[in-house]
Amino acid sequence: MTPSGRVTIRDVARRAGVSVATVSRVLAGDYPVLAATRNKVVRAVRELDYVPNAHARALSAARPGAIAIVVDSVAMPYYAYIAQGVEEQAALEGRLSLICTTGGDPGRELSIVRLLREQRAEAVILVGSVILDDDYRKRMTEYAHALAAAGSRLVLCGRPPLGEGVPALVVGYDNTGGAHAVTAHLLSAGHRRILYLGQRPGHTTSDSRVAGYRSALAEHGVPADPALEVEAEFSREAGYDAMRRRLAEGPPGFTAVFAGNDLIASGAIQALDEHGLRVPEDISIVGYDDVPPAQDLRLTTVHLPHDELGRAAVRLALGRVSAGPLILGTHIVVRGSVRPLGPRRPSR
Amino acid sequence: MTPSGRVTIRDVARRAGVSVATVSRVLAGDYPVLAATRNKVVRAVRELDYVPNAHARALSAARPGAIAIVVDSVAMPYYAYIAQGVEEQAALEGRLSLICTTGGDPGRELSIVRLLREQRAEAVILVGSVILDDDYRKRMTEYAHALAAAGSRLVLCGRPPLGEGVPALVVGYDNTGGAHAVTAHLLSAGHRRILYLGQRPGHTTSDSRVAGYRSALAEHGVPADPALEVEAEFSREAGYDAMRRRLAEGPPGFTAVFAGNDLIASGAIQALDEHGLRVPEDISIVGYDDVPPAQDLRLTTVHLPHDELGRAAVRLALGRVSAGPLILGTHIVVRGSVRPLGPRRPSR
DNA sequence: CGATGCGAGGTAACCGGTTACTTCTGACGT
DNA sequence: ACGTCAGAAGTAACCGGTTACCTCGCATCG
Description:
The structure is a homodimer.
Chain A: H1 9-16, H2 20-28, H3 35-48, H4 54-60, E1 67-71, H5 77-92, E2 97-101, H6 106-118, E3 123-127, H7 134-149, E4 153-157, E5 168-173, H8 175-188, E6 194-199, H9 204-219, E7 229-231, H10 236-248, E8 256-259, H11 262-274, E9 284-286, H12 293-296, E10 301-303, H13 306-317, E11 326-328, E12 331-333
Parallel strand pairs in A: 1-2, 1-3, 3-4, 4-5, 5-11, 6-7, 6-8, 8-9
Antiparallel strand pairs in A: 10-12
Helix pairs in contact in A: 1-2, 1-3, 2-3, 5-13, 8-9, 10-11
The structure holds a DNA duplex.
């Protein structure tokens, strides 16, 4: 045993009276070793409580790296479920998977990516909405090249592609289509004044949901009203605050709400409730994501294949499927948060 | 550059026209290097897109290891919030943190712990309820010794201590007290027939909550009725199924429900709802954990300091606080899911 | 009976860094 | 002019494994 108290393979070899190579072989189990010798080694390993050093191991032999998923926060169900899909598929593929969280801080994202590069992770999966500006593009392009140089694959999940020549894989889902469908659902229930709660100009996810919302309105001949598009971050608190402020301004002026995601919907429902407006009797509401709390709220929403998103990201990273950008479908889940408005034309 | 396409420190040294030691020193920044030399090295690093190999680094120099938290599933808010606390504190302490999930499978737990040993993680935090039997005790004792031998610390979070001489730290919270308090809350609202939904004999968390439930009943002179203690796993589905089955058997025979956790409560509420029983008008219900969805349900529940639990685990692991078993307090959060039963004595 | 082959185990190079120790260079003191 | 010393850079040992290659002994075969 070294002075530090750490047991090395040489200690085991000494104790078993064999060479280090033999110990290594017994442990690997891929080389013929006499039963008697093997026993001596196994006994020495047990007696010394020996654990091979993973770093030394990784240094000499190339072995599969871990699969890492990087998200803002694991406390947001949306991310948690994608992470779960990643874990499941990684386990299936015999890989360890790690979840790392950035708290939405680009600085931490940077140091995590650097760390994963150094760890020679097999794949790094970056999840979550972003502001699609030049800074972002530059940052991701750097990540992509740096990771590629370190032998890791970069997968962007729910983020826009980076363009030709950048070594990054992409898996996403249909934001615009889902938003269109759920808006159309409200429209065909007779709603015309639909508040979109959750604008975040520049944010890709929000932008494409707004696009679906607008296109559905247009399709039904309903003019878009900027006053019905309200900003809010994708959190419960933001949804609550935004709805509260809106209600404080005067009469609602809308009969239905399309919340940018289920968290916003949940906060908005609380604000409505505190204002004496019942869902769906007074106000109809729909969300997006279909995370489990939506079930408790009886919220009509758009279902995202969270699990499948994570699994697909892993399969893509490991080259199990062809590399083209993968776009998964979404579908609307009808629960009890939308009430048909009846034949009467809503007042303008 | 090596044939494999990987850039090593020697490639950088060659390109910069200096020795590997100089490159290492420039990167470490802790040794005087002429500005001109430094520039040559920096340029070479940039041109080659060099990333030091973390394994090689870890092998020669001792550096802080990562902090790992191992949970059943990150999709359960209870775990997600504890993990978040761990991440936050780890970031504060300048450590990387990893979340690993087992899916509740002891086999995967074992391989994850083995892997973390090999990675020489600085701390391994094991979270979650368990069956406290000899098998468990043996397994944990082995983990504890093996991790200690590898220089890692083991922290049990929300699990019972292992006894003297086992190198494991413990941080928990007051299950019995919280259960007692919330049961007393129901009792003082006039409820006498309180269904405990979520028994799991042998499971430490469940057992101590049941203990609190019983002691509160006893204190109020209400005899315990085994028919009012119903088994259910700690999941939404289990809560739903158990309540459905119970209601199918005949008239409820209870006026209030104490759900083993908020997930069970959420499932039970859905089952009650489908059976035409309203909360809290017909049936009162309380939960445990106070995870955010409880807010949407307007569920009266017991608040756990999830964040603080995670943070405390990290501080304990890093020796920032004294080692004695740390028990955090809980408190009841009153929302709208309990209705006073009024002066009339409920029928037996 | 000596050559051949093969199975078991040892030797040492190597993975890619860090760092103690050594060497070299030039400024400075006498 | 020569010895001293400090600063900058190089040399090589080391971290703890893996594995290509080599050696040795014994059974098999011509």
